[in-house]
Give the backbone structure.
Amino acid sequence: RLLLPDAARAGLPLARPATAHKYSVGTLLAVAGSRQYGGAATLVALGARSGGPGMLYLALPESLADRVAARLPEAIVHPCPQAENGALADLPGVDLEKFDAVVCGPGLGKAEQALVLRLAREAAGALVLDADGLNLIAGQLEVLAQRAAPTVLTPHPGEFKRLFPDIALADRQGAARTAALRSHAWIVLKGARTVVASPSGQVWVNPGGSPALARGGSGDVLAGLLGALLAQCENPEPAVLGAVWWHAAAGEWLAARHTVLGVDAETLALGLLPFLAADGP
Amino acid sequence: RLLLPDAARAGLPLARPATAHKYSVGTLLAVAGSRQYGGAATLVALGARSGGPGMLYLALPESLADRVAARLPEAIVHPCPQAENGALADLPGVDLEKFDAVVCGPGLGKAEQALVLRLAREAAGALVLDADGLNLIAGQLEVLAQRAAPTVLTPHPGEFKRLFPDIALADRQGAARTAALRSHAWIVLKGARTVVASPSGQVWVNPGGSPALARGGSGDVLAGLLGALLAQCENPEPAVLGAVWWHAAAGEWLAARHTVLGVDAETLALGLLPFLAADGP
Amino acid sequence: RLLLPDAARAGLPLARPATAHKYSVGTLLAVAGSRQYGGAATLVALGARSGGPGMLYLALPESLADRVAARLPEAIVHPCPQAENGALADLPGVDLEKFDAVVCGPGLGKAEQALVLRLAREAAGALVLDADGLNLIAGQLEVLAQRAAPTVLTPHPGEFKRLFPDIALADRQGAARTAALRSHAWIVLKGARTVVASPSGQVWVNPGGSPALARGGSGDVLAGLLGALLAQCENPEPAVLGAVWWHAAAGEWLAARHTVLGVDAETLALGLLPFLAADGP
Amino acid sequence: RLLLPDAARAGLPLARPATAHKYSVGTLLAVAGSRQYGGAATLVALGARSGGPGMLYLALPESLADRVAARLPEAIVHPCPQAENGALADLPGVDLEKFDAVVCGPGLGKAEQALVLRLAREAAGALVLDADGLNLIAGQLEVLAQRAAPTVLTPHPGEFKRLFPDIALADRQGAARTAALRSHAWIVLKGARTVVASPSGQVWVNPGGSPALARGGSGDVLAGLLGALLAQCENPEPAVLGAVWWHAAAGEWLAARHTVLGVDAETLALGLLPFLAADGP
């Protein structure tokens, strides 16, 4: 059981060769939002942008496309068909082979399970499932074992119980490890001391964080950030540990500057880079 | 008769345990806006966000939903039916049991009285009535006596006269106290020296504030802030006194930085947290 | 012939009594914009907001209403009928008696002359005509002689020639004075050294300003600012001189901070208050 | 072969006479965007604004017009017909004689080649072709030889190969020079060390820049900035060299402040002027 911060921090900001071009430093797709939960799409995109991917694509229900595109002009937005219930219905014209990472889940609402299963099966790059993306994969975790690229699941305790109803949460580290081994996925078990477990059974605990992050949308920002770092890293370990540390440490830093009441999710997303730059080196 | 600042300031920022999660630190609903007065919905939401609730919900006439959602991605927006006259007509699918506090009124325009009466009867948590919400409850104040949770009314002198036409305003402190005792509600009587009276008859005066706050929309920001603090506090006293002090003191602080002409309501809402952080722990 | 800065600066920021309320410190209406020239409506509104009016109303062609309302939540927006050609067609439901000042013109495009004539006849408070508002009043200046409240015309040289084709501009001060005496209006003749002339024949020259203000939209910001100060002042002289000085001096100050290329109209509007605050007291 | 920075930097910010007015310091048109690639229109416009043109016009597919107009109120937006495929179909009512410079290309998508050919033939001022604008002119470069005003082509290596399939890129400087001589255009060959070649065969290399600029949209910002400087300069040399240096040097400066992950295209566009101002004199 390892404490997370030092190693995680050491890898950030990700190094980038002088000859980098936009297609060589991470192509990321975020699949998020629904008519009911539109803000989640903006937050995951802002979190993703902060992680510095070369190219950022967003697949959104058509009713959200203009709003999010107005906010993030550097993103390429795919407006997608929207079901009667306001959820994303399909991803026509989205080539899942081309992305170094895909993030799916924030604000998806009552989307069909088939959407998430297709991503799990066809996304050639790393896959982050969060929020409703976790609820939709529940009961179908065996599909993850087939994936060649890394998968990351980011449950809070309630979502963890829906995913792994038979794993007791009394021992959070043990629970995360068991879940990771069983699902062949990285587990980011969120909470006051976030636990990370790798598919090979390593476990880390992040001692940092702040109750200022107890706000709707904080997790959406983390999901986007995870995707951005995974899209740029061959090895998932520094990406997962780096994103978890960065998000929590930025929350602490922002709480010290804006008070514990002042770290809404948008402030958090916009504060990730100022924190990292201020934190050196 | 007590001066308000020291005790009010002492409670801010609200303390938050390390184990807080987003559902444990205040779930707030704001009901605001109309086609004619759309900006009020944004302002009450910005004021609410600054108060740090774990979850922020907004029930808005459908014509406003996209605009406000674009501005506050961390909020969950319920687009609601809109009457011919542009007012919010109903709150379908909104479960009034689940909110720790509800704010109702800014920009509502010519909504039906039934809307406000339903909130007064069914909202399980604290209720803040402001602006048109006050006009709509006028003549029906007896419904407030049935409420188990606290009610806060925030009239300026004109609204006070419509609510309590027989209570003379020459003695502002006495008037607020009489109104509070009669209505079983907290009264925040706004003006150059805002008076707060509790339902049990205690009275406070806030000596601070600034004429820079004499701008349309200042009150909308206060209503949102009141709701946010009430949603997080068991006891309404620190929430009401804290919000009144914070709003006025931020106005003074901002006027010193932006001149007396420079504290429009949006600047005020966005300045609440920088003020509190600068004002020390 | 007087140099403008010292006296103009002395009146700013406008003093405001501690007992001010939002209806006692200026109610302003801006009438601006068309489908073709929508940004002008935003710029006049931002300029107006910076001047600190208690209440800000905007009458806009309906296609602009949502966009501008999203940008200025503290404004009350009247969406108005729009003609085939994209211009504002009428002002239904707008009570021209209640405004302390009205600004009309930026971006109006090919509106009907009747619109401007109605404002000149019915607006009970001060009236600022700018841009297309000037073009529409050309040939009908005699209507201004009937007005009880002050009128301000803000032509650049091209607009001046359309308004006063027989007044030579070689002597800018003399031209402005002749125009002011004839039209019974304040004349703000814009250019590198803006000239102000009062209806009683006084003339001022503003030696300040910056070529950084040679940008589309600079004048829209000035029109809004003029309206905001006129709405708050009994006497038009400090309002007109104050706005002209403030706008130009802010342009100089911003050019020193953002370079001569960096003072687009939005940056100018948002820099008015930081300049005034920095210029102290 | 010349190193670019010193001379390029010396010309910035462009000098502007005290008597400048908005029509004397550059009238620029940007033609950009499609339903699929809407953000590119915003980014080219933000880049253009930062260059300080007196007047900024934008010709956009109608579905983008409101969004971009909301973001840049100082721009005059022409909503243009949009083809079935979401591309800009035509430029009705746009007088190509009046612009000192035209930028065409970012985000155009699958527009018709006729659009770009018309611009090449009819634009009286300087013409910048970028991104899809380059793809559309491929195979028709002979039209550029007829132009009286300067043309600037801004390919990255992939676009260069489509434009000049027979010119080997192993020697970047030689390739740019050959392409410039053949096409009678300025060539800005982008990459880690951007190469500029003039139609008369001079070649410059920019040793600066940062891998932080390896982000989607960086090039759109450069295209807008190029157009803005060309619109203000009689001589294209300082405009082209100035824009290339400014964009790259701002990227380095921003990477030092926001980390190598923190220079998304919007941050870049908004950082151009703060960089230039900080860099003195």
Chain D has a mean pLDDT of 96. The interface with chain A takes residues 36-40, 42-43, 46, 67, 70-71, 156, 191-192, 211-212, 214-218, 257-262, 264-266 of chain D (CB under 8 Å). Chain D is about 40% helix and 15% strand. The beta strands of chain D are 2-3, 27-31, 55-61, 76-80, 101-104, 126-129, 151-153, 186-189, 195-197, 203-205.
